[in-house]
C-alpha cells in the first residue's frame, strides 16, 4: 500500500509501557480507575454548570469548557494505552497515528488558551473588580471560548499539513507511548530539520511562553491582592495556588517534550501520565473539593434537580 510521496510505512510501533505482568496489571488498574474518574468527574462538572443557573458566570462556563477539553485530551491517548498494555506488539496504523497527533494538538491548544482565559477572568475579578461585570460578560466569555477553539485548530493544522505529506519509508518505531510530532517526524526519510524547528517553535516556544505568561499573571494578581489586605490574600492564595498547580503540572511535560532534545523513556512515561491521566482529573478535583459554590450547587442539584427530573419523567404531579 502506498501513502503517497513514495512512502511505504503503513503502521507505526509504539513503546511498551510495562514489561512485567505485575507492572502491566498495576498500570491497567491505575489507568482504568483514573480514566473512569476523568470521565465521571468532568461530565459531572459540565452537568452541574449547565443545569444550575447560579453557576452561569464566566468563571464556571470556562471551567465547564475546560472539563470538556480535559476529557477530550485524555481520550486521545489513555484508552489506547490501556488496550495496548496487554497486547504483544503495540502497532498503530498510519491513519490512527496521524489522527492521534492531530487531536492531541487541537485539544492541547484549546486547553492552553482556556487556561489563559481563566487567568484573565481571575485577573479582572481580583484586580479590576469594579469593571468585572462590564469586561467579563457572557459575550466576552463566548468570544474567548471561540478564540480558544480557533487557535487550537490553527496550532494543530499548522503542524499537521507538513507531517501528513512526509514520506515514511524506513524505520517505523516511534519510540514513545503515543504518536506525537517530534518523534514521528524523525522517522521520515527526508531531511526534517526545518520541520523540527516548526514543531519546536509551534509547540515548544508557545507552551513555554504561555507558561511564563501565566505564572507572571498569577504573581501579579497575588501582589495586587497583597497591597489591599492580608485576609483577602489568604483566600485568593488558595484559589490561585490551585490554578498555579494545574499550570505547572500541565506545562512542565509540554516544555520537556518539545524543547528537551534528549528524550528518555522513563521521563517520557512519567510526562505522558501527568499530562493525560493526572491533570485531567486534577481540574475537577480542585474545583469541587475547594470551591464552596460548586459544592452548594451539587448539593442543590442532587436534592432538588434529581427529584424534579424524576417527577417530570414519571409524569407524577410534583409535591
Ligand atoms: C462552553 O462555553 C459555551 C459558550 O459560552 C457555553 O454555551 C457552553 O455551555 C460551555 N460548554 C460547557 C460544556 O459548559
TrEMBL record:
Q: Does the keyword Transmembrane helix apply?
A: yes
- Where in or outside the cell is it found? Cell membrane; Membrane
Q: Which UniProt keywords apply?
A: Cell membrane, G-protein coupled receptor, Membrane, Olfaction, Receptor, Sensory transduction, Transducer, Transmembrane, Transmembrane helix
Superkingdom to which the source organism belongs: Eukaryota
Pfam families tied to this protein:
7tm_4 (PF13853)
Q: Where are the transmembrane segments?
A: 25-47, 59-78, 98-120, 141-164, 205-225, 237-258, 270-289
Membrane topology, as annotated: Multi-pass membrane protein
Q: Where is the G-protein coupled receptors family 1 profile domain?
A: 41-287
| Source organism of this protein record | Ceratotherium simum simum
The answer on whether this UniProt entry bears the keyword Cell inner membrane reads no
What does the function comment of this entry state?
A: Putative odorant or sperm cell receptor.
UniProt name for this protein? Olfactory receptor
Q: Gene3D superfamilies, alphabetically?
A: Rhodopsin 7-helix transmembrane proteins
Similarity section: Belongs to the G-protein coupled receptor 1 family.
Amino acid at each position: 500500500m502506498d501513502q503517497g510521496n513514495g512512502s511505504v510505512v503503513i503502521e507505526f510501533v509504539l513503546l511498551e509501557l510495562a514489561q512485567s505482568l505485575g507492572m502491566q496489571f498495576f498500570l491497567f488498574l491505575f489507568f482504568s480507575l483514573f480514566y473512569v474518574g476523568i470521565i465521571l468527574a468532568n461530565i459531572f462538572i459540565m452537568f452541574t454548570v449547565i443545569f444550575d443557573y447560579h453557576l452561569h458566570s464566566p468563571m464556571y462556563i470556562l471551567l465547564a469548557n475546560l472539563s470538556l477539553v480535559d476529557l477530550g485530551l485524555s481520550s486521545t491517548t489513555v484508552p489506547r494505552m490501556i488496550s495496548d498494555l496487554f497486547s504483544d506488539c503495540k502497532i498503530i496504523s498510519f491513519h490512527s497515528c496521524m489522527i492521534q497527533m492531530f487531536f492531541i494538538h487541537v485539544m492541547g491548544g484549546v486547553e492552553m488558551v482556556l487556561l489563559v482565559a481563566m487567568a484573565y477572568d481571575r485577573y479582572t475579578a481580583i484586580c479590576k473588580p469594579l469593571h468585572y461585570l462590564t469586561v467579563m460578560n457572557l459575550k466576552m466569555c463566548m468570544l474567548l471560548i471561540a478564540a480558544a477553539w480557533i487557535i487550537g485548530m490553527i496550532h494543530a493544522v499548522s503542524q499537521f499539513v507538513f507531517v501528513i505529506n512526509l514520506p515514511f519509508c524506513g524505520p517505523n518505531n516511534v519510540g514513545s507511548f503515543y504518536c506525537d510530532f517530534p518523534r514521528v517526524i524523525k522517522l521520515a526519510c527526508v531531511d526534517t530539520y526545518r520541520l523540527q524547528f516548526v514543531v519546536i517553535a509551534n509547540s515548544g516556544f508557545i507552551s513555554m511562553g504561555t507558561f511564563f505568561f501565566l505564572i507572571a499573571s498569577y504573581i501579579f494578581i497575588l501582589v495586587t491582592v497583597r497591597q489591599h489586605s492580608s485576609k483577602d490574600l489568604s483566600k485568593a492564595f488558595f484559589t490561585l495556588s490551585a490554578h498555579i498547580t494545574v499550570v505547572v503540572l500541565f506545562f512542565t511535560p509540554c516544555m520537556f517534550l518539545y524543547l528537551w532534545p534528549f528524550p528518555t523513556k522513563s521521563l517520557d512515561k512519567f510526562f505522558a501520565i501527568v499530562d493525560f491521566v493526572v491533570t485531567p482529573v486534577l481540574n475537577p478535583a480542585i474545583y469541587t473539593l475547594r470551591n464552596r459554590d460548586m459544592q452548594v450547587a451539587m448539593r442543590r442539584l442532587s436534592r432538588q434537580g434529581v427529584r424534579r427530573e424524576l417527577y417530570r419523567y414519571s409524569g407524577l404531579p410534583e409535591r
